[in-house]
Amino acid sequence: MKESKQYKIFKVVNTIIMIIVILVTLYPFWYLVSLSLSSEKYVYAGLVSLFPRGFTLKTYQVLLAEKEFWTSYKNTIIYTIVGTLVSLFLSTLLAYPLSKKRLKGRGIILGFVVFTMFFSGGLIPTYLLVNALGMRNTIWGVVLPGAVSTFNVMVMKTFFEGIPTELEEAAEVDGMSTYGILLKIILPLSKPIMYVMALFYAVGVWNNWFGPFIYLDDSSKFPVALYLRNILAGAQQTAVSSTSDQSELAQISATLKSASVILTSIPIMMVYPFIQKYFVQGVMIGSLKG
């Protein structure tokens, strides 16, 4: 089929707009890369734009040479994996029953769930609860307080509502239990939304520094986001080990923030391409069906 002139013009204009959007989106990240690879004197002078000036890897060498950095990175990976699994487990157990109209008290429960989107218990009561449960200075103090996102639960609930009930009815006729239906039918059909929710929760745990800042006292348990925050804020003198003196840190302070952002962003950016095919499908189906 021959393309019309108007359609050809549309494709050209659309391509140009998309290129502009891509460049605008990528520029901040590319600018951070240029800053992190530039000499501090050029950064202070404001001479860095698209490309590094006075190319140097000193900032990365100082950060990567720190034992505490790698310890905090390991902690973050553990927190992210455990936190994501716990969040998916709890969110699924909440969203699936709420997707069933036959659930007694569904409206009341749903009202309480939605209520938490607008009101929380507050920082001090939450801290007192975490402390009373003995979760301070533990992995559970990091992953449990924010384990369930109401928004994510509502998206999952909407997705589950879009799965044909005939599938579950047929499984019930065959003698399958409720948990069997969930594990063997619902979850395999829910891969798109599960991958999307996993990404949302993983990014949230990975970037979380305030929760660990409140609930963790032992620096050996800090996640990388909190470790780098302490370096940038100068909150603790032990942020840099004795192998690197404070003058060295001062020399790279101009590029430290940029390098920190790059190092903490790379792992999450590496995960996204593997679940990209599920991302749009999961969000669209989960937010529009119902």
UniProtKB/TrEMBL annotation:
Compartment list: Cell membrane
Domain ABC transmembrane type-1: 73-274
Major subcellular location class: membrane
SUPFAM superfamilies: MetI-like
GO BP annotations, alphabetical order: transmembrane transport
A Pfam family annotated for this UniProt entry: BPD_transp_1
InterPro entries assigned to the protein according to its UniProt record, in alphabetical order: MetI-like, MetI-like_sf
Organism domain of life: Bacteria
Entry's transmembrane regions: 12-33, 77-96, 108-133, 139-160, 181-203, 254-275
Presence of the UniProt keyword Cell inner membrane in the record: no
Keyword vocabulary terms for this entry: Cell membrane, Membrane, Sugar transport, Transmembrane, Transmembrane helix, Transport
Keyword Transport: yes
CDD domains listed in its UniProt record: TM_PBP2 (cd06261)
Membrane topology field: Multi-pass membrane protein
GO annotations of cellular component type: plasma membrane
Family: Belongs to the binding-protein-dependent transport system permease family.
Full protein name: ABC-type sugar transport system, permease component
